[in-house]
Amino acid sequence: MNFISTIQNVFRGRTLATIGMIWLCVILVAALAAPIFAPFDPLDIDPIGRLQEPSWAHFFGTDHFGRDTFSRSIYGARMTVVIGLGSVVFALIIGGLIGMLSAYFTRLGHVLMRIVDVLMAFPALLLALVLMTLLERSVTNTIIVIGIVYATTTARILFGMTLKLKGEVFVDAAKCSGAGHSSILFRHILPNLISPLLVQASFIFAFAQLQAAALDFLGLGLPPEIPSWGNMLSEERIYVTRAPWLLLFPGILIIISVFSINLVGDAMRDSIDPRFKDDIAGV
Amino acid sequence: MLAYTFKRLLALIPTLLAASVLIFLFVHLIPGDPAAILLGDTATPEEIAELTHAMGLDRSLITQYFLWLGNVLQGDFGTSIFFRIPVLSVIADGAETSILLASMTMIWIMLIGIPIGILAATRHGSWVDQIASGGAMLFASIPTFWLGLYLILIFAVGLGWFPSSGFPSISDEGGLWNIRYLLLPSLTLAAPNAALIIRLVRASMLDVQREDHVRTARAKGLHPTKVAIRHVFRNAMISVAAAFGFTFAALISEAVVTETVFSLPGIGRLVVQSILRRDYPVIQGVILVIVCLYMIINLLVDLTYARLDPRVSLK
Amino acid sequence: MNLRNWIRSTALASSMLALSSAAFADGVLRYATVGEPPSLDQQVVTSDLATTIAHHMFEGLYTFNASNSPVPLLASGDKISDDGKTITIALRKGVKFHNGQKMTSADVLASLKRWGEFGSRGSLLFSNVESVDANGDYEITIKLKTPFGPWKNLMAFINGGPAIYPASVIEGKGKEPIAPKDYIGTGPYKFNEWLPNRHVELVRFDDYSSPDGEADGYAGKRVAEFDALRFIPVSDVGTRVAGVRAGDYDYAESIPGDLFEELDKDASIATILNGGPIFGLVFMNSKDGPLKENFALRRAIQSAINKVPALQIAIGPEKLWRSNGSFLPEGNVWYTDAGIENFSKGDAEGAKTMAAAAGYKGDPIKFMVSTNYPFHYDTAIVYTKQLAQAGFNIDLQVYDWATLIEKRAQPDQWDLFFTHHGFVPDPILISVMNDNYPGWWNTPEKAALKAKFTATSDPAERKAIWSEIQALIYEQVPTMKTGDVYTYNIASSKLKGLGEATLIWPSFWNVSK
């Protein structure tokens, strides 16, 4: 099938990218089946068994609440997936629509792209930080804020790509055959943009992880009672000398995951339409 | 060229105005009351209301916005609610740290990023290239605060080679030698950014290598190293220089996490602290300055492109 | 101003490079603070950090000795009339302000008046003051409406207290904190500079006139051994600890309990316990919501909580906390066991029955807590779990401190909120005694006892009335105490003269390195 051969293309001869993809699947499974894999309730407090070293009972040790770090790490995978996918979907839909519509309807584009310009004048983390203070700390708000930040870049990129496609023969052909605006945009132009969009999605996913971890660290991200890798680092960072494993494991999990996403994204980028290669930023 | 520059500058004004409205709104919609924070735990609601009035924070948002904008246009960014000194001098104080930190980081990025990037491109496909590209991507995946915490632990607390935190001004005792305080933070910041530059240098070199004039040069029998430096590197540098511009602008504000870990008195941490203190004039002032800086660097990069690369049309 | 610094620094840079930086630092104490104080105006600001810095510059008429009794500082003595309504205070002569002016009764008068009207704790005393007058340059007279027991404690408590400023600075000043240029006091150190995010620096005041006598708590001789005290904001606690270990700071405050044992063992670091414990308080809303006037329901909540696990988690080593229900610690004159049998029952089943009897039907109870103080948040998490086990539907709302302060002023926004309280030498200073403090505990029973409490100055009688008030607090539950926490600071072991513990705020006169 076409789909499978594409995937084969992407990963053929790229051992690292394949390992990365496998790791991402592991995370996805961990996130979906967290209650099955986690040996303990991630929120269970134990005032006696605090700050334990890694052992067979607690693979990653326990934190200052006496909670099992391994179980929290598994539940943390959930937030990684939720924040990553959430921001990607938000950024791609909002940013994608703005970009495509702006390129297609020039007048509307004038207004919309100016708004995008204004938002892009704010450095990403600064914008996220201010917006998070404005809203309350919650999962939805974190997704929205990170989504807004990357919706602007997505809008710019899709604007450029749609402009390129707008002048192509097949669009004119569709127009001549009487296709409506929405049909041209979504039936004819959009399918050509799917693969660059997927690459863009992988980079947003990776950036979103680092951005969310930074927000958690500054005390402005996910609510602290939710186990996420960023929150675990943020909450336990004062114990770095007393219980170094509390920072080691979540930190390594973040690094491996972001690295994996980047590897996969990179592999996908090498196999997309050369027309759009310059448009995609990424690592 | 001059007309083009002027046109671009003119186009900045509406964007800047819109940005100023956004900044003002963001800041004033944040819940929390500066008067209540200033007066502390025992203040009565009447006392808080009185101070709010004295600070002019009970006027309508529209009035406050235009007052602020009017003053800013005259170069007056107001007075910090918290420090009770002009906002501009608060910003200037933070700017010293931020600019020095960003510059030092840029030096690391250049020293690390450019040679490795060139090496990877000239040995395209070899194990050197794979290690360089893979390593760069790995470094780009490390959260900066995590790296910073471990650098402090190893090099400041463990080995005692460098100071752990803080940054006394270089006009203070110690003079320029105080730069050593910025060593670990700048390395922390450089890690992910150098990684990006490595990949960018490599990619642009590879792109340029495929272009016609390079092929011609090579066909003429010029030495490969000469080709690499004279033809490939110089052309690849256009996009790398642009990336440097953006990176520098971004470093000023995005260093916030690193500044927090190392307790540096920079612009980024000033924003976070001022938000926690609800010091409206400072938040507004800093963000406005950062946004201006961002836009100007953006413009400069575009103009450089326009000058260096004749393919960019001046429309 | 900044540009000039820049040019100067570049010009001096090369010559400076040759010199070792250590040569400069000897005479400077580098103190790593949790953040920046809101202001150093002692009369209106109650932040502990502000006092830690400012009590080196500003002094009051009285201060506390090591046993927490008020003794003269800028005063030299006092007399009280037989009816207890007229207080005459003599002032020490030859005291100079940092601006060179001599301190006289005019300055004291102006300072007391501004504090009485606008000071944070001024109204506690001045609502009962008829007049304040000067008799000549070195004596003042305070006339009270009724005898008032805690007057000297209030005068000696510098945090939000009557610091003495020059009349020329303070005249016409209101509630708004005075600006740094007006930081002029009589203390052993004077204000030098406040660089935002960088440091607050005080330098030795050469014309300081010290009180006599052996150093005893904050009383007695004060010698400024350092050239300068530099208070550097280092908000990240890990960085504060690392900084003292690496020798970048001499002293750091507010260190987590869990690091105590490790730091105590470290020979290069001294741990200094704070003498007066702080305590967490969970306030209940007396103005609005399900807890308003429903004392039975409040008692049910109180019964559900076992304070010990929260202290174990939030603080750590047992040396640093006491599960103590008395508002003032054991050993203090105000210690009383009235009502404390209800302090930490941890009886989920009993609480369930009590709540049902009080008409609780599982409505959400909004509990606000801030993440700015980890011990608030940790404690709140444990309590929320315990309350859930007892069938309470707790809606935990986590904010930053600034938002929490704004929300708690609005009665319809919350039912419970978490804060903490510093050690105070007189129970009248505890926030729950203030009728306007959020929570707004203002029952007739409280009002009657409070009036009795302030009307007498007989120590035994005041102690007995305080016991009754504490019992009432456990019955009406306007607030729940979470236990005593002995915070600690760390210092380089090179510092001399620090002692084992600080009284309330660390002080650095008679300290050197």
**Radius of gyration of chain A in whole Å, from Cα?**
21 Å
Mean model confidence by pLDDT of chain A: 88
| Proportion in β-strands of chain A | under 5%
Give the N-to-C terminal Cα separation of chain A.
30 Å
- Secondary-structure element order of chain A, as H and E? HHHHHHHHHHH
For the largest beta-sheet of chain C, the strand count, sense and barrel status come to: 8 strands, mixed
Q: Given the structure, what is the number of helices of chain A? A: 11
Would you identify the CATH H-level superfamily of the largest domain in chain C?
Dipeptide-binding Protein, Domain 3
Largest sheet of chain A: none
Shape of chain A: elongated
**Which secondary-structure class do the elements of chain A indicate?**
mainly alpha
Class per helix and strand makeup of chain C = alpha+beta
Name the chain pair whose interface involves the most residues.
B-C, 61 and 68 residues
DSSP summary, beta strand count of chain C = 20
Would you identify the CATH H-level superfamily of chain A? MetI-like
Give the domain tally of chain A: 1
Radius of gyration of chain C, in Å, reads 24 Å
**Helicity range of chain A:** over 70%
When the domains of chain C are counted, the total is: 3
How confident is the prediction overall: mean pLDDT of chain C?
90
How big a fraction of the residues of chain C is strand?
15-25%
What is this entry, summarized?
The complex is a heterotrimer of chains A (283), B (315) and C (513). Chain A has 11 helices and no strands. With 283 residues, chain A is mostly helical.
Provide the fold topology.
The complex is a heterotrimer of chains A (about 280), B (about 325) and C (about 525).
Chain A (H helix, E strand, L loop, with lengths): L1 H10 L3 H18 L1 H4 L31 H36 L1 H15 L3 H11 L4 H28 L2 H8 L4 H37 L11 H8 L8 H26 L13
Helix pairs in contact in A: 2-4, 2-11, 4-5, 4-7, 4-9, 5-7, 6-7, 7-9, 8-9, 9-10, 9-11, 10-11
Chain B lengths: L1 H28 L4 H6 L5 H10 L6 H13 L13 H36 L4 H13 L4 H15 L24 H27 L2 H8 L4 H31 L1 H7 L4 H11 L2 H29 L7
Helix pairs in contact in B: 1-13, 5-6, 5-8, 5-10, 5-13, 6-8, 7-8, 7-11, 8-10, 9-10, 10-13, 11-12, 12-13
Chain C lengths: L1 H17 L3 H4 L2 E6 L14 H7 L7 E3 L5 E3 L2 E6 L5 E6 L13 H14 L3 H5 L2 E6 L4 E6 L6 H6 L10 H4 L18 E7 L3 E6 L23 E6 L3 H9 L5 E2 L7 H6 L3 E6 L3 E7 L10 H10 L2 H8 L6 E2 L25 H10 L6 E7 L3 H16 L3 E7 L1 H8 L7 E6 L22 H12 L3 H18 L2 E7 L2 E5 L8 E2 L11
Parallel strand pairs in C: 1-10, 1-11, 12-20, 15-16, 15-17
Antiparallel strand pairs in C: 2-3, 4-5, 5-7, 6-7, 8-9, 9-10, 11-19, 12-19, 13-17, 13-18, 14-18
Helix pairs in contact in C: 10-12, 11-13, 15-16
